[in-house]
UniProtKB/TrEMBL annotation:
Active-site residues per Swiss-Prot or TrEMBL entry: 188 (phosphoserine intermediate)
Signal peptide segment: 1-25
Transmembrane segments annotated in the record for this chain: none
Residues that bind Mg(2+): 139, 247, 249, 397
Domain of life the protein comes from: Bacteria
Residues engaged in binding Zn(2+): 139, 402, 406, 447-448, 563
Stated family: Belongs to the alkaline phosphatase family.
GO molecular function: alkaline phosphatase activity; metal ion binding
InterPro entries: Alkaline_phosphatase, Alkaline_phosphatase_core_sf
Keywords, comma-separated and alphabetical: Magnesium, Metal-binding, Signal, Zinc
Organism from which the protein derives: Phototrophicus methaneseepsis
Listed name of the protein: Alkaline phosphatase
Amino acid sequence: MRLLRGAVIAVLSALLLILPTVAQDAPEVIILPVDGAQFLPGALFDVRVEVHAEELPDDFAVTINGEDVLGNAELTSWTAEESLLGIATQAATWRDVTYTEPGDYTVEVVAGGETHTVTWTVREPGMGGAKNVILFIADGGSVAVNTATRLISRGMTEGTYNDRLAFETWSELGLISTSGLDSIITDSANSASAYNTGHKSAVNATGVYPDTSVDPHDDPQVETFASMVKRVLGMSVGIVTTAEYVDATPAAVWAHGRQRNNATRSDYALQIIGDGLMAGRIPELLPEVILGGGADYLLPQTVDGSTRGDDIDVLAAYEEAGYTVVEDADGLSSIMEETPAMLAGFFHSGNMDVWLDRNVYTDNVTTFPNQPGLEEMTLAALEVLSQNENGFYLEVEGASVDKQLHPMDFDRAVADMIELDRTIAATMEWLEANGMLEDTLLVFVPDHAHSFDVYGTVDVEAFNAAEDVLGRRFAIRTYAAAGYPTYTDEDGDYFPDAWDVNITLAWGKVDNPLYTEDYQVSPVPRTPSIRDENGNYIPNPDDDPNGIPLGGNLDPASSTSVHTLQDVPVWANGPGAEYFGGSHENIEIFFGMANALGLNPAASE
């Protein structure tokens, strides 16, 4: 709750800075969507005007382009106890607003003798040219992650890489800025929401503009890309992830909410079928494909392992809605012998196990030993989605690049990045074999970055033979002494034949808790820091006892490293790819995909 409250306060502070100075007796006013918000013609969105006062001023008025709209508003209020800011609030709300004509729309709010103004822009629709869109998200990726992945998976000869990653052969390269409404540093919910709605939001939030009420389910919503392409173009939608399917990045395809706790994720599971706490406000999306982890959100609370707080059997509801449901790799392979119309696969109770543990250190995978890989899930999704002659939108997430960078488990992060790269290559081969490559916009982009990079190599034998920390530091080689790591790939699958090689990479992050580092692959998933009796995180003596101690530079209550500010690369190929060249805000991923399809929701009005 502390993080959420801080995020909302940060949003409101930013909003109040851009509104006019208010006279001492005039109440504060917040207008959502914010100034500068942009929309497609015919896109659906909610509008909320908050007045921080015990009652509405007598002169309260709201106009849009000079037209009085207050008579159509739903008027509500909440007390100081029901406010995240501790301020009594009056609110006017309009649901499912839409403007079909491109141009600027100016909102003027009069309250207590002061006028507050924001301007929104409805963009011209794009020209189109694509039939399908596939968005590949390397959660937590960056240029440095791509580079390390290229070095390990492709190798280098005399300073030249032996090959490029699959997406690095695409025609367009740009940069994406990832900050949100509330902070310079984003999380996955906020950033993936920008990609899927064309609107910036706040940490933990997806598909909404956060308001100040404590109710996490009343915030103004914005329509998602998936919703638009289904209702306007009749396209199919798919979500493939190695995370829980209701985690931030996959859920951004359809979900609307302000938090990332179990209750919200449980509600996201129901929002797919138009049920739950948002029932009546959110139309069912029913994506034709849902593949990932998160099975515990399907089970009623009476079943062991359930993370739900209710007795709803979501799995039964999905089957009733038309999904063919599978639970392991064998089931996925079997069901694809006769392609279903709708496919849902939940292969782990939580996040799926990472590639390195599923394929190398298999003793770490015990509860769910038969999980499919990202490549297998994506190819199955393509088979299902391609049955729709109107085209499809597919989001594919390599989730554990991020989930392994947080605990500084760099080998596992890179292995999952290699898996995503192989998935992209397999997707391109499938599209070409099925005559769809020329009709499909392909986009690769991380949702945010980490401060990860490589700065040399490590002589493992010398490192392990050293008797103290100083001796271990002499084993770290930089500049000319660095030479090359000794990973090999004799079988040509782009994964190293062995991960415990003699010369590894010296890599790390700018930010970290107190922990130790030995630059060698860990046979078990890393837990670099543990909590002491005072609630602060200290090096875990069981994680890396012979490593070099690294001083922490984060809040002592931080157990892992965090996200960073840096722009992330976007690669694109196919019809509409030229949109993505150059430097952009993260909302332009949405508008670029819409442009490629010629998406114009107003055409359905």
